[in-house]
Amino acid sequence: MNDLRSLTESFLIYAENVLRYSQNTITAYGSDLARFTDFCLRTGKSDINLHSARTIMGFMAEMNRDSLSKTSISRYLATIRKFYAYCLEQGIITNSPVKGISNPKQKKLLPDTFSQTEYENLIKKMQIALDSQSNYIKFMVASVFELLYGCSMRVSEVCSAKLHDYNSREGTLKITGKGSKTRIVPVGAKSRDILNKYLSLRTTGSDYLIADENGNAVYPRKVQRWTEKYLGMVTGISKKSPHILRHSSATHMLDNGAALTAIKEILGHSDLKTTQIYTQVSIDRLKKVHKQSHPKS
């Protein structure tokens, strides 16, 4: 039972069925552990009881030689920590080889954001670009952007949101986020108007909140293409991902006086420290405005 391949398979089953992690998380864990297992097999460490801190350091050294970023190496370590924690819990090992090994230090990059004016321009230009499309397509795409920005949702959350979790009368949406944690977020009046109009145009039955004309859920890559296309019309940000709308939403709420704890709940962060990065973004924006407009700057 100490065979590494068998253990990783057992861990993934446990993570899916007991911990109730999302399919995206399971897939990522599986990919990370496959690479780690391959390294261990090549270095004669197929038995987990032969693992030590030196095993982990060797794996990190190989990733460095392969020019993986510090962020990627940290992600691998996080997965490996989860795996060893499972093995400890099951009594397979008595000590975690990764204990005491720190993530590689890296400069904390602030998330890219766009201004509120740029978002308003984005919506206008998107409406013009979609003018030749059917009303269904227009309101489907607009609804996706309202959920990403108006509700600060992750793209995976938008694509997996269920129709029955949307309460139009109350203006709320129940979201299943990372680790299958649920939260309820408000859906503003403007976002609700667009979403309700879109839903009124649907003729096919679908469990998903956002579905195409055939009733199929939209998939993340399609949303990625939409954001790349329409964000490119209004901003020079290099990485035009759906997450930029979530980052911008959080920053704009903070700019407009929202409490950090409230933003934490809306974003679904488990730790306030994760949300606090938007404080620095907001301060940096204030400094920029001050430098551009204050006579003493």
Would you give an account of this structure?
The protein is mainly α and 297 residues long. It folds into two domains: 4-89; 116-245, Intergrase catalytic core (hpI Integrase, Chain A), CATH 1.10.443.10. 57% of the residues lie in helices and 4% in strands. Helix 1 runs antiparallel to helix 2 (23-42). The radius of gyration is 22 Å and the shape is globular.
Key terms for this structure?
297 residues; mainly alpha; hpI Integrase, Chain A; 2 domains; 3 strands; 57% helix; globular
Topology:
Elements (H helix, E strand, L loop, with lengths): L3 H14 L5 H20 L10 H13 L4 H20 L26 H14 L5 H16 L4 H6 L5 E2 L4 E5 L5 E5 L2 H12 L19 H12 L11 H13 L4 H8 L4 H4 L1 H17 L4
Antiparallel strand pairs: 1-2, 2-3
Helix pairs in contact: 1-2, 2-4, 6-8, 6-10, 10-13
Précis, in short:
This protein is mainly alpha-helical and 297 residues long. It has helices spanning 4-17, 23-42, 53-65, 70-89, 116-129, 135-150, 155-160, 189-200, 220-231, 243-255, 260-267, 272-275, 277-293, and strands spanning 166-167, 172-176, 182-186. The mean pLDDT is 88.
